[in-house]
Amino acid sequence: MKQEIYNTLDWLDIDYTRLEHPPIMTMEEGMTIA
What we know:
50% of the residues lie in helices and 0% in strands. The chain is an all-alpha fold and 34 residues long. The protein has one domain (2-33).
């Protein structure tokens, strides 16, 4: 699941390594960040 989220963030051109949120999050939270 985590890898899918990372792939989605990468697809949205988001550097998830710079996010202050934990690596495990729901897709909804990921879209909120986007």
